[in-house]
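## retry 2 of 3
previous attempt timed out at serialization; input unchanged, resubmitting
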Amino acid sequence: MSRFGKYLGYMSVELDGELFEIKPTLRQKQQLMAIQQKSSKTGMTQEQWSELHKIFKDILRTCDPEATDEELEAFLLKYDTEFMLKLYVAFGWAKESDLTSLKDKLTEKALENN
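## retry succeeded, writing output
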């Protein structure tokens, strides 16, 4: 194994006491970063949330390839924001201690856009 072999494998994300072993791709990470940069000034648009949900579903399929769209959409209906924030931590974009303030900012911007 090369010296980069330690970076192979899955990331662990815990939501509501349940551990999800996900394996996002570099492309998915870049897509998430691009959407986040676009939305950081004006808040997340409905189109951007739709793009995020598509990426989230693709990432979630890495831990359960048999999950249906309906099941994943039901999961995201309840946990989309929390899942996104946990990805920020997994990617090293935020610390676990920052999650409450990040969630408050996202919620505030979402309310302003409605």
